[in-house]
Amino acid sequence: MGVSNENNPTMIPANDQEMGYRKFGMETRNNRRALSVINQNFVGANNLYPCVVNKRGLSEANGICNKNHPIPVARKFAAQIASSQQHYHEETKKPKLAAENFSVWEDVPIIDVEEHEAAKDQPVPMSLEQTETTLSHDNMTLQMEIEMEDIFEETGIDIDSDDAKNPLAVVDYVEDLYAYYSKMEVCSRISPDYMAQQFDVNERMRSILIDWLIEVHHKFDLREETLFLTVNLIDRFLEKQNVVRKKLQLVGLVATLLACKYEEVSLPVVDDLVFISDKAYTRKEVLEMEKSMLNTLQFNMSVPTPYVFMKRFLKAAKSDRKLDLVSFFLIELCLVEYEMLKFPPSFIAAASIYTAQCTLYGVKQWSKTCELHSKYSEDQLLECSRLIVGFHQKAATAKLTGVHRKYNTSKFGYAAKCEPADFLLEQTQ
């Protein structure tokens, strides 16, 4: 028996059977060699890829793209393969390729069907490209304009962005806090005509008491929120409890004491309050009134006063120190006036800031951001603002001048010397 050697195809087999196997193997090897040099026989052999063939046609028909070389597969076997694949060709609508009639067009490049179908959707007419690009650009421009209008006209400015890293600003909860304050100010609203139930005190006495307490607050150098809570405690107590005239000052002293205990770090002692009252009351009377007031108010000290809204609205108005001082000067004038109880605390705060802007700048400055955070428009604030301008006009000449004297000092920037915004009153005529 001879030893086969693919590298030496001229070796002769030992017998006829082996000769038949060897002959078939030699034909196969000759076929492989023909495949290795197939591209060299095409026209344009200098090119690296002279033509592109249909890969699916080659694999399905088991044919070879060369008309100059014999086909090693029998015609009968090729016909069977083509018949078995007929249904597949009908579904895919691909041209049937038979091994016996497959040929190459040497002067026309053959395109790969799969690659051609993949690239068929890519080219777009230039006119359509320009139209789509123009429409897309116009739509984007219109959308950007709408978004910019929404930002400036509806949402306003984000006033908390600068405090994002300040844990004391509680930026994540501040909107929820003020939504809660807005609900609570309605629940804790003081009746604007509660004085009708009092038989021994009146509105004038209340104004005198609060004007005096503003001076006491200034002498003790207490926090701003302490004053607003003091006034709130007085009104809520008088709304529920009748008080004789000689005890009214005691009510004011005890309200100051409770507010200091709630807001201050260092607070005046009971003896200090007895002293400033010119010893009109004893220590025992102060403590008894304290118990009575807490029981009447059911120990509810957490109520939204105008102060909490002032801080938020001033931030929305991008205020400076001068606007802060004038705003607080005007709102403290409102504390003295009994008629201002008809307005909610947030409304008085917004109106005071709006009036202060008109006082300092001579023009209306109520921006969309202020309106967004206060929930009040300029038209809604005008009525209250005109009342505040009237209080400002008579602040220096009225009988109760405690607020004017307080803000007519260098500590408060002489805010009381600002000219009132009289042009707001002229618009009513």
What does this protein look like?
- This protein has about 425 residues and is mostly helical.
- It has 19 helices and no strands.
- The protein has helices at about 15-35, 55-60, 75-85, 85-90, 115-120, 125-155, 175-185, 205-220, 225-240, 250-265, 270-275, 285-295, 305-315, 320-335, 345-360, 370-375, 380-395, 400-405, 425.
- Helix 8 packs across helix 10 (about 250-265) and helix 14 crosses helix 15 (about 345-360).
- The longest helix has 30 residues, at about 125-155.
- The model is unreliable at about 1-70, about 85-110, about 125-135 and about 150-155 (pLDDT under 50).
How many whole angstroms does the radius of gyration measure?
48 Å
Helix content: 55-70%
**Average predicted confidence as pLDDT:** 77
The counted number of beta strands is 0
Series of secondary-structure elements, N-terminal to C-terminal? HHHHHHHHHHHHHHHHHHH
Q: Which structural class fits the helix and strand makeup?
A: mainly alpha
Unreliably modeled segments: 1-72, 87-110, 124-135, 149-154
Give the quaternary arrangement of the chains: single chain
Distance between the termini: 131 Å
Provide a count of the helices: 19
Function: Essential for the control of the cell cycle at the G2/M (mitosis) transition. G2/M cyclins accumulate steadily during G2 and are abruptly destroyed at mitosis.
Pfam families: Cyclin_C, Cyclin_N
Family: Belongs to the cyclin family. Cyclin AB subfamily.
Subunit structure: Interacts with the CDC2 and CDK2 protein kinases to form a serine/threonine kinase holoenzyme complex. The cyclin subunit imparts substrate specificity to the complex.
